[in-house]
Structures are given as structure tokens and as C-alpha cells.
């Protein structure tokens, strides 16, 4: 599958073509989904969207470990939580799964802060977006996305790390 990057991804997100209304999973980019924890417990929904891999940011139970590949982060939703050490691993996992044509779900308990942070980090690292543009793309698909201020600050640090490694 071709990966849209940069301004092409932003334009595509603005069209809303990836996001059918009234779904429990938000497709942020082709094959990359975002949700809260309830959707991650719904195997028929996961199968309907072809989810083959899950990033469990909140660290709750991995309900379908026999059928789905998991990357479990286990981060608490606190104002002093440090998500930065987990971002490269999570982004690489997402990228590798998407490259192998697997649809990926990134979730936390509510789908508001931790999981959108990971999705934004992926868009920064692999889709050549700034943090602000990645947040725009994420919010166009998943309007509830609202990473904590400390996560936004860590995303800017992550962007700097990615730029220095390029």
C-alpha cells in the first residue's frame, strides 16, 4: 500500500475519505486506526476493519493475543507520565506492520491522550509531518484526540530527535 506523507496526507485527511461517520475506530491514515479501549475488546469490530496488530498504550489486557500481534506499552495517564522512551519502538512497530500490509489499531483507555500521542509520533517519524500538522491529521479523523500538554512537549522533543537522525 502506498503511504501518503507530508502535505498529501494532510490534504487526504481534510477530504474525510478515510473516516466513515459513526464508527468506533477512527482511520487516521490508510490502515492506521485509533480508538479507546472498548473497541479493542470487540473482536468482530477488529475483524471488520482488518486489524492484525494493536499498540496497547494503556497497558490493559491484550484480549486477543492468539489472533492479533500486540505491542504493549503500559503507560498510566498521568500529568507526569513519560511517553518519550516508548515512542520510537511503538512507531517502528506500527511502520513494520503497515509495511507488511497489516492494519494497526493504537488504543488506550479513552482514546483521548496517550494513543493519539503515539499516532502523532508515528506521523512525525514516518510521514514527514510536524507535530502540529500530525495533530491536525489526527484530529480530523478522531476529533476527541487531545494529548496532555506534557505529551505535546515530549512530541516536540521526539520531532527534534527524528530530525537529528534523518
TrEMBL record:
<dbReference type="GO" id="GO:0005737">
    <property type="term" value="C:cytoplasm"/>
</dbReference>
<dbReference type="InterPro" id="IPR000340">
    <property type="entry name" value="Dual-sp_phosphatase_cat-dom"/>
</dbReference>
<dbReference type="InterPro" id="IPR016130">
    <property type="entry name" value="Tyr_Pase_AS"/>
</dbReference>
<dbReference type="Pfam" id="PF00782">
    <property type="entry name" value="DSPc"/>
</dbReference>
<keyword id="KW-0378">Hydrolase</keyword>
<dbReference type="InterPro" id="IPR029021">
    <property type="entry name" value="Prot-tyrosine_phosphatase-like"/>
</dbReference>
<protein>
    <recommendedName>
        <fullName>Protein-serine/threonine phosphatase</fullName>
    </recommendedName>
</protein>
<dbReference type="GO" id="GO:0008579">
    <property type="term" value="F:JUN kinase phosphatase activity"/>
</dbReference>
<dbReference type="InterPro" id="IPR020422">
    <property type="entry name" value="TYR_PHOSPHATASE_DUAL_dom"/>
</dbReference>
<dbReference type="InterPro" id="IPR000387">
    <property type="entry name" value="Tyr_Pase_dom"/>
</dbReference>
<feature type="domain" description="Tyrosine specific protein phosphatases">
    <location>
        <begin position="85"/>
        <end position="143"/>
    </location>
</feature>
<keyword id="KW-0904">Protein phosphatase</keyword>
<feature type="domain" description="Tyrosine-protein phosphatase">
    <location>
        <begin position="24"/>
        <end position="164"/>
    </location>
</feature>
